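Narrative summary of target 7.
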Amino acid sequence: MRHLKAHRKLGRTSEHRHSMLRNLATSLINSRDERITTTLPKAKELRPFIERAITLSRRARSVDGEGAAAQALHLRRQAAGFFHAGNTAMKAATGKRGQLRPERTSGVAALKRLFDELGERYKDRPGGYTRILKLGHRDGDDAELAIIELVDNRREVEAIEAAKKRAKAATAKKKGSKKAAKSETTDTADETDKA
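Modeled conformation, tokenized:
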């Protein structure tokens, strides 16, 4: 029996597994299409991992009252645990003045995007921020692949708007054809009256 055994080990040590989930979460948040392709077990493990981080950003949006800024900062620091920290430890300076700092890593960019964009997008959604789509099996090792994506992404919203425009154009065209058919019937009726 699998009592209290909630997660998949994915054939890795716990340190490797946590690092891999952080990398996947960073890739998902930073990706332009807001979707990544991975194996199905990894996607199923990533889903609750990333949804907890998004929930923290949602809660930071809704904090108000006394100490709201401190509470929002606390939630941001908690969410930072879901991503790699970045270049926090620099090597000792080589003696050159004005040496440029190395760029921050993508984990910092993911955290910024999480709290700036995604917290606002999902502020009214009480969960279910991701979707998993099965792709079939990979050729090399027959592993089952899946796409994990954020819901309500730009591509999805554009598709809904395009469908609405098509439906509106179709109804306008249908109304136009009905008016044309009515005018044709009235024209034929007028001609028969004249005859």
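DSSP finds five helices and three strands in the chain.
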